[in-house]
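Section: Multi-chain targets

For targets with more than one molecule, the full set of components is provided together so that the structure can be written out for the assembly as a whole rather than chain by chain. Components appear in the order listed by the source. The example entry contains two components.
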Amino acid sequence: MSFLRAFKYKRKDSLMHRLDPRSKFLLSIILMSFSVVFLNAYILLAILIFQIVLLGLSKTLREWVYSLRGLIFFFAIIFITQMLFSGSLFTGFVLSLRLIVLSSSMSWFFLSSTPEDIGRAMSAARIPMELTFSFIMAIRFIPVIYDEFQSIYDAQRSRGLELEKGGFRTKIRNLMPILIPLLVGTIRRTYEIADAMEVRAFGASPKRTSYKPLKFRRGDYFLCLASAILALIIVYLKLFLGLE
Amino acid sequence: MVEIVVENLFFKYPEAENYVLKNINLIIKEGESIAILGENGAGKTTLAKNLNGLLKPTQGSVKIDGVDTRNLSVAKIARKIGFVCHNPDHQFFAETVEEEIRFGLRNFGFPENEAERSIREVLKTFGLEDYRFRNPFQLSGGEKKRLAIASIMVWNPELLILDEPTIGMDYAQRLNIQRVLKKLVSEGRSIVVITHDVDFAASLCERAIILSKGEVIGDGCLRKLLSDSEVIEKASLKKPFLIELEEELGFSIMEEDFDEICDFLTRVFPKCHS
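Its structure, encoded as tokens over all components, is:
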């Protein structure tokens, strides 16, 4: 579950943190597109290096590296299935790289943008308030669920539960003592939050105001320009050079 | 019987920059009843999780019967050291109270007939016989707490660590838990209680370990430490009612008499709760 940390906002004083979430989101989508469109190791490596620079500029490299540890399990599955079905280690490597680039694109965005800023950006895009709010709550819930998972896991380990032991079926069965309390706790909290929102007049006024309106700065225009150039590169590499 | 030796323990969480525990040195011996006290964020739960191997030291060591916790699995430690987490809802998943209690016994591979006997005994000890086939999620707060302790006590660990056992409980529920734990202490069971409730700690424990900002600022006789205004202030605690009463009266009260005095005061002054 530590990969969820990659999507938890980290308060830092960095250039990237000060930028508008809309420009960061645009760049994230473009970077993500690279991993969806191409399966070329050189292109994916180049994008990964670019992402590492972005993460460095947002001072969140450490959190990103920590979150990658949680993806090791998925990398292992990709490697093993590729080895079994295609007999190629290289394909396994490229697919793992694709997964890293894909998750890192959004990771950089979420690590450097507050849920409030994301909400403001969604409101500015005229997305209904209920949807915006649900999305922000979902983002906020990620670290809460992670912490709760850890507490439940600790409680069950203290009662002798060993997730590492046994075959596949035993491992799945052993997850039940963790998943059931997690699910019950999450549903309960959902009701509590709904009540807390209602008693504070959520939805009473259809039009909401913002005390901190979003504003594009020079850095945001630069990021949009970089996104446009990268989008053109995708088109050029795919349509004109025919790279896969 | 179990003995825990903590030497130069430093701990910090993987993604954190600061140490939560700094240079902790302790020995926990057989039959001791210990309260770990301190302000919010002092590192009490982190220390407890280091004692039962859920967390491993960043520096220094925690040894259980001479073996470093780094070389022991949590399950192996749990067999000797039971840990009751502060929120019972974090551990319930079974459909009945009985199945919830049976969970630990299954993990440790107890034979069915022995498990059945242990379950019956623990249900009786914790007054849960009538709830045997009830859903754990439908119990009251106090009952849930008793079930959480029962589901650990069922395999008879040598040391019991309880994280905030009285949190969110009313007076009657608190008294109930207090009586159950007092009985365990009187039977010679080692107990470590993490709490903010100094009155509860004073009624149950002889030794106190007081933490402040990740460091031990006091370790010794609970009554003595909780009479020290400097320690009390540093750890954001308050003097237990028993000690305040002693100071007002100007003489010592035997611990055995304390419950009687509290009952008397509650009768005379119904709003007075220790």
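Chain A touches chain B through 24 residues (CB under 8 Å).
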